[in-house]
Amino acid sequence: MPRTLKVAAAQLGPIHLTSKREEVVSRMITLLRSASKLGAQLVLFPETAFTTFFPRHLINSQEELDSYFDSTDTITSAPNTKPLFDEAKTLGIDISVGFAERTTDGKGYNTSVYFSAKKGEIIAKYRKVHLPGTKEPFANPDAVNQLEKRYFEPGNLGFTAFRTPDLIPDAAKKRSGIKEHGKGDPIMGMMICNDRRWAEGWRCYGLQGVEVILCGYNTAGFAPDLWGTRKPMTPKEAERDAVFHHKLVMQGNSYMNSCFSISAAKAGMEDGKYDLIGGSCITTPEGHVIAEAKTKDDEIIFAEIDLEDCRQGKEKTFDFDRHRRVDQYGPITVQTGVVEPELL
Ligand code: CDT
């Protein structure tokens, strides 16, 4: 029995420090309506979708900094974000969207939420675990900074997969007593940007039988101070490499965890001089890209996927139950840094 789902990524072109929230939300609604015309049931928006990627800037004014943050408690009801969720509800499309989250005790997280249109509420929340970059700006005044470690706490909600209701007809429910895997409502997991480069998060989701990974991102096209300069590159070469690495990790990890993945970029030249890659894509459990953005602007990419396609990998090559050898993976959870073998 096919378990088909129509999914989309809503890539956003540049958003600037000076961009007005209403304009951004209006662009997001336009994208949502385009996705609706294609029949999408789920639309993924990028990381920190409502604002410029502000962690590239050193912001000393608390008031200014706070203007980039929202609260999960009010994200669906605050006047400057509510229209997006209202539209999703009206169109009957689930959305996942990233934003900078400020908690009541003043902590900051780089967060994404999953909003179920039928339920009319947020049913899952993820906080970015792998925060890239530095706490202090680079000494080089021309460097592209990534001050996520300054503005955010590392995510503390783990890699928690969740089922998405009302997307697939006849999905098996708890009351049916069915124990067989791959029969229920879709199993999804969220990650944010840099998380996609870390196999550990993917595997945590894989171990929960994840079928669709949702990943929004803001990836600089040229940031040698962040990435290293051993092989000097022109901005064009660096951007090509950044897109290559993006697709490499989406394709490779989707394959190794037998799941689909959807990724949505914020793309193009933000704040006058900071180029972000595009490359939003949808990949299959066999690692193939089946939809891909062609621009670095606002763009919908769309695919109809069949979650049944996850079964082959989950039951054969990557049947974790039969083939994993946890007694041999000790260092993975007890060690962070590298311990080399002793010198000869
Ligand atoms: N936003 C974000 O997480 N960006 C990171 C930069 C990595 S720098 C090595 C990314 O993974 O694209």
Describe this structure in words.
With 344 residues, the protein is of the alpha/beta class. The longest helix is centred in the C-terminal third of the chain and has 22 residues, at 235-256. The radius of gyration is 20 Å and the shape is globular. The strands form three sheets. Strands 1, 2, 3, 4, 5, 6 and 15 form a seven-stranded mixed beta sheet that branches. It has a six-stranded mixed beta sheet with strand order 7-8-9-10-13-14, covered by helices on one side. It is 25% helix and 23% strand. The protein has ten helices and 15 strands. The protein has helices spanning 21-37, 62-66, 82-91, 148-151, 199-206, 224-227, 235-256, 309-315, 320-323, 331-334, and strands at residues 4-11, 42-44, 69-70, 94-102, 108-116, 121-127, 162-163, 187-192, 212-217, 260-265, 268-270, 274-276, 281-283, 289-292, 299-306. The protein starts with a strand and ends in a 10-residue tail after the last helix. The chain has one domain (4-334): Carbon-nitrogen hydrolase (Nitrilase/N-carbamoyl-D-aminoacid amidohydrolase), CATH 3.60.110.10. Helix 1 packs parallel to helix 3 (82-91). The structure holds 4-methylsulfanyl-2-ureido-butyric acid (CDT). Pfam families: CN_hydrolase. InterPro entries: Aliph_Amidase/BUP, C-N_Hydrolase, C-N_Hydrolase_sf.
In terms of DSSP E residues, the strand content is 15-25%
Determine the fraction of residues in helical runs and give it as a percent range.
10-25%
E-strand count: 15
CATH architecture heading: 4-Layer Sandwich
CATH class: Alpha Beta
| Cofactors, ions and other ligands in the entry | 4-methylsulfanyl-2-ureido-butyric acid
The CATH homologous superfamily name equals: Carbon-nitrogen hydrolase
How many structural domains does the protein architecture include? 1
Our measurement of the CA-to-CA distance between the termini, rounded to an integer number of angstroms, reads 58 Å
Q: Write the H/E string, N to C.
A: EHEHEHEEEHEEHEHHEEEEEEHHH
Pfam families: CN_hydrolase
Protein name: Related to N-carbamoyl-D-amino acid hydrolase
GO molecular function: hydrolase activity, acting on carbon-nitrogen (but not peptide) bonds, in linear amides
Keywords: Hydrolase
